[in-house]
Amino acid sequence: MDQFKDAESYLLKSFICYEQIFTNLGKLEEAKTNIVDTYIEAYHWLVFVSVVLGKKSQALLVSEQGRSRALSENLQTKYGLQGDATKSSLDQEVCLLVSGTSPSFVVVSLSDKYLHLFTLSSLTPLVVHPAAMQMTDEAEQWLSRLKYLINRVICDGNLHVRQNRDDTFEDRSLDLDYDDESEHQHVLTELARVTLGSKGSEKTNEIGGESSGNRKDKSVAKMWGGGSECHLATRSPLPHTTGKPKASDEGTSGKVPQEHDEDVCSPPPISSAETLRGSGLLKELYRILIEPTEKKLTQDEVVFVPEGVTFMVPFGALQSPDGRFLSEKKAIRFGPSLTTLKLLRECPEDKHCKRGVLVFANPRSNANVFTRRNGADVVKSFHERFANLPAASKEAIKIREILPDVTCLIEYQATKNAVMQSLEKGVGVIHIASHGDSQTGEILVAPEPRMDKHDIAEKEEYLLTMREISSCQINASLVVLSCCHSGRGQIRAEGVMGLARAFLAAGARSVLATLWTIGDNATLEFMERFYRHLASGLSTSASLKRTIWDTISMNDKYSHPYYWGAFVLVGDDVTIRNGADVVKSFHERFANLPAASKEAIKIREILPDVTCLIEYQATKNAVMQSLEKGVGVIHIASHGDSQTGEILVAPEPRMDKHDIAEKEEYLLTMREISSCQINASLVVLSCCHSGRGQIRAEGVMGLARAFLAAGARSVLATLWTIGDNATLEFMERFYRHLASGLSTSASLKRTIWDTISMNDKYSHPYYWGAFVLVGDDVTIR
Questions:
Q1: Which pLDDT score, from 0 to 100, does residue 731 have?
Q2: DSSP labels, 282-331
Q3: pTM for the predicted model, two decimal places
Q4: CATH classification at residue 719
Q5: Domain limits for position 631
Q6: Contact residues for 86 (Cβ-Cβ < 8 A; gap 6+)
Q7: Which parts of the sequence belong to the CHAT domain (predicted)?
Q8: CA end-to-end span of the chain, whole Å?
Q9: Which of 361, 360, 358, 354 is nearest to 430 (CA)?
């Protein structure tokens, strides 16, 4: 154990040096990305040593320091948020991230010698699940097996969609670099390329920038498999494959392996025994990546923060031993890092639009383009080179039917200039339905119309690249990349350097992307379901889960996980307003809370000298005037907003029944509370999410803090949704203990104890764990 302590000491010193170098690079984003690639191996070793020494928090924070550093700094600047890379601040940020109604988080830490899974949530402590691997050659073989499984799932997904086509099938792949060839040869080429990995140039296929010849035996080369693209290449022999790569595989040719190449091993055949369901690929990945953490995933949503090859794992499609997919049990989301997720959650509401939709689909053009044939450039028309996607056009029209305020750029309208100009418009949703490139994730757009029918368009005229997206100023809440491979890109320490990351860096809050080939008609059906759920008011994560559930339950050919497993949600979980404002009555818009009225009456029975403002009496003016009265306890039982912690009050009575109240008339905000002069000893906010608010270095900028700032001595608030009847019982117990002479802290403890001991449905921690006491411990006379 002493050698591990010594190693920790040396690694921590190197850690400080690397961080200083990173800081000194200032705003040079590309240089920062490169430098993290250079020293990521030292971070991996420090994670390993920290786990061995039992320092699980340190291990998680060190792992976090190596993820999406440039993206995090970009978002801090863009949203005007404070950032600090120190260990203590990161520790605090992680704690704040998982507070309240947060999902369960699974952080994957992957190196050439280990796989660690960190799980954390608001209801469970940090747990690290080290895989059963030691510093032996067996670890490398085990990781090779993991890479092979991921490779094979992606590969099989592509092939299944292609081979099970019908007469209406059109896939949305954009393969720019392979020669024209028969479909059969193309399928074999893809299988070989995905299973074995493209053999990139010496300059790009290693993380640290050294040539593959110099670094082929080093751990980073083994870890990243020798390939810079998301084909997840691996140079070491893959367990359970039918062939072995020869020594010539170590060459640096950038050519895509062909069926007749002698130095390419034969890919495993696609047999009925090796389909996803038959071979248990998804079940084996479930056993490796989910089973160790399964009991800790207590929330309805799970957010995965992958590393390395695990960025390509379709976590939602992983299958438990009983045959159920993870997406059937949990809502699934991805995050580049914990820090990035926290920044996206904290960004000010006015930074993103929630209304309006921009759709561009199925670009067409009268231009000509170059394509490769037998090694030479050949001129073809745009229509010949890029297949028409009629279902993508229908997809755009269907979205326009489901959501209001939709702008569509379809076919010849979907030019690159029109798309680039439209991307920066203030819309809530950007939807792109086009071809996607399997190597880079680049997306096809239409070049500008040609006057000369013989004119040839260059690639930069009809490809939308990561660099171009990153240069935009986008404020969309959601970007949907309904294209093949749109979640792909170069895998580096920074993460997947593809279009999904580019849209996040440009300002999008959430991105729905794909990991492999998607069929045109299958995607049309999937997207129609997704947008109907989104329009119903569900969040993006919940909408995706419901869409997958609906797709599976249809029990048709599209129920196979190859058709829906490719879709992954990256970033925050957002809700889109369904277009134009609709007028509803106050009673329709806000549910009645009869137990809250009973709660007020019950408090009046328990405590003397109680003034009640119930239902129509609880107007904003009456509440604001009453708050400044000299009372010992203020109790508010109403609806609370999950984002800001704002509380519902009644607007002033209307003489005209058609009169419309503005938000400021029926919402009690933090600013309004802060302006009051309150001298209450205790404020009880018996509302959902009343302990929530924007998390900043100052703390949680919400109503609980506002009441303390206004003069309250103690505040009882909630972190998540609370049920009406459950809260009635809880509050009755709390006030009886308070009336008996116990302090607020002791009363809360006794109330929780009583609730647990009742051993009924309200004994579950979800019903009482939301209540938190902030401030002093006071006693009410």
A1: 95
A2: HHHHHHHHTTTTGGG--SSEEEEE--GGGGG--GGG-B-TTS-BHHHHSE
A3: 0.65
A4: 3.40.50.1460
A5: 586-775
A6: none
A7: 281-572, 589-776
A8: 58
A9: 358
